[in-house]
Amino acid sequence: MFKLKDLKLGQKFTLLLVLIFLSGIVASGAALSSTLNYGAQVQVTTKALMLMETMNSVREYTNSEVKPELTARLATEFLPETVPSYSAREVFETFRSSPLYSDFFYKEATLNPTNPRDQADAFETRIIEGFRAQSNPKEVNGFRSTPSGELFYIARPIQIVEQSCLECHGLASAAPASLVDRYGSEHGFDWQMDEIVGAQVISVPASTVLSSARKSLLLILGIFVAVFAIAIFLVNIWLQRYVVRPLNRMAMVAEAVSTGDTDAEFTQSSKDEVGQLAQSFNRMRLSLQMAMQRLERYRSGRRSSGSSK
């Protein structure tokens, strides 16, 4: 059975260092993991917000430049290219052809959309309702679970701030006939000015967010382990040279003195506690030697007085 008292001094010291090392790794690993995860989220959020601003620019360009040029054709033909959300979605798919953005997904989730692909799911509906409950909603971000895995998302409210939006999403009777013919008159209408009708959502697999943080964590912890291992190795060398070996030599001298060799001497030049212990041991050895000499003289005197009688 393992007993701490049976270990040698060097082993006890090494065990103490290992325990301190493991405690430090656990504590610093937890704090570092949280910090790196937050940093990774900030990095992904920054990239996602940049993409969202780009999509907003595409929406604005489509609404102000493309749509007016094709208005005459909308009476007889529905052109999805004139719809800002459609243009943004298609441009984003082009972005996704780049390896830098291939993991990102974009959706303009809407409670009452014209195009069924924009229908908000239950999770997105809760986000939109949360935006509606606020007087000045901003973007939100976090993690959500899906059948395909965990996702990190960033969402911003879609609010009707331009009257031109109501040309297609106001009253169904006033909408372009080609739009009604394509999607019907049941969905995507009766929107109101300043109403929050949906949310722009950009999402990315959580593994993408966490993988870079995990790699950084493993690298930093690997450095910590290497530094601590080297530190433990060097401390053990120092301990063996300046503590364990002097104590072992002192123990050997004490063993020799205990068997009667009072001339055995231990030398230690250091001024630290081990050196002070060595000086005290040598003083004790000299005192014992003097006591033994006095005892020997006393015995000799007793034998001399006994023989004279």
TrEMBL record:
Family annotation (PROSITE patterns): HAMP
Key words, A-Z: Membrane, Transmembrane, Transmembrane helix
Membrane-crossing residue ranges in chain numbering: 217-239
SMART domains according to UniProt: HAMP
A Pfam family per the record: Tll0287-like
Ranges for domain HAMP: 241-293
Keyword presence, Membrane: yes
InterPro entries, per database record: HAMP_dom (IPR003660), Tll0287-like_dom (IPR021796)
Record PANTHER family: LYSOZYME-LIKE PROTEIN-RELATED (PTHR32089:SF112), METHYL-ACCEPTING CHEMOTAXIS PROTEIN MCPB (PTHR32089)
Protein known as: DUF3365 domain-containing protein
Native source species: Almyronema epifaneia S1
